Amino acid sequence: MLSKAIDREFNSGYCFPYEIFPESVQAIIKDAKDTIGFNPDYLSTGILSNCATAIGNTVTLFNGSYISQPILWLAIIGRSGIGKTHPLKFAKKPIEEKDKQNYIEFQGLMQNYESQEDKKGNRPNYIKSILEDFTPEKLAESLQHNEKGILIFKDELIGWINSFDQYKKGGDQQKYLEFFNGGTLSVDRVSKPPIRVEKTNVNILGGMQPALLKAMASNNRSDDGFLARFLFVYPTNIKPNLFTGKTVQPIHVENYKRLILGLYDAPATILKATDSQIKIYQQWQHKKAKDCHNDDLETLIQSKLETYVWRLALIIEMMQQASQNKFKDSLSDASIYKALKLIEYFRINTLRVYDKILSSNPLEDLPINKIDLFNALPMEFKRIDVLPLFEDHKIKGGSVNRFLGNKSLFIRIDTRGNYKKKFN
Questions:
Q1: C or N terminus of the chain, fewer CB within 10 Å?
Q2: What is the pTM of this model?
Q3: How wide is the angle at C-alpha 336 spanned by C-alphas 331 and 338, nearest 5°?
Q4: What is the pLDDT of residues 231-280, one digit of tens each?
């Protein structure tokens, strides 16, 4: 009975459970969907990442056994052109504005510093929270100057991953594995002073096309734990983005900005889980660990999800406290319940991603209507005879020839429009 109750309690289905957010954030997610067509799963992911970044090293959580930091590695999955980037850029606007203000202040301090003949005092530093185009040395310097930590943002994560070891062979991937747990950063430099950051906080957010997931898993990344550290969002509720001529209500934008700034200004504290919250986690963890025990992949996924439960509970709790402007060092039962519900959403999406990575079926890369069309086509056919089928599946014009030209699906028998499917 307990086993079924746990599954029922925390099952979130295939849609991001955005009820984990304060009501003000739920309002902006709904309004952005209705006005500018943002996918709620993508926008929710961006907001979650930016809230984690705003909290940074200021707040940690102790669960009775170890300390957790608000570090999230998040990847949204979707084919090109369906609207992945805009929701993420919208979510990071408040922090970008803060970075912009910090840069203006930095320029003023630099002008004052350069105007001094004797250059008294320390050279000013630009404190930046979001990194998009950077070298490993610039990453180290940003972490040195920003005690809260940073957010690595990439439209396409595969570009960032492919840049590993670009400047010096060996070590980049391993260094990021250490960042995942807030490890110490130590960099010895030839012509500059060494860098040492005792407690790092590196959040990662970006997009990925389904066809590139196999590349993300290559180069030992599926074996050394790099891939398993990502929480994936691979929604099935993608709809065409239809222009409305509307925009998100300013009150919602302002409320979101206020939340991010409130998290930035939150007092330093260690949240402490109560015995009852530890019991809630134990019931979930014991049940899921047993369910996954006989499957190597599910065991790997479960082990990383266990790490993320407390991180998400911390972030969810701090979002609620910041929305009310009432800060305390305790964790609510509601936050742990919401974290577990969110974890089950990520489990579903992560399994879908691994299914994609492990699959050798070329149909996996196609949208649903083309999969249905392929299945409806006879094993051998003449192009002109099946055009009504293409019409029924909303494939017209040049899309017909592009689909039939997919050599992983079809063999062109002759020049008279006769084709054969490669498999049934």
A1: N
A2: 0.85
A3: 125
A4: 999 998 788 889 999 999 999 999 999 999 999 999 999 999 999 999 99
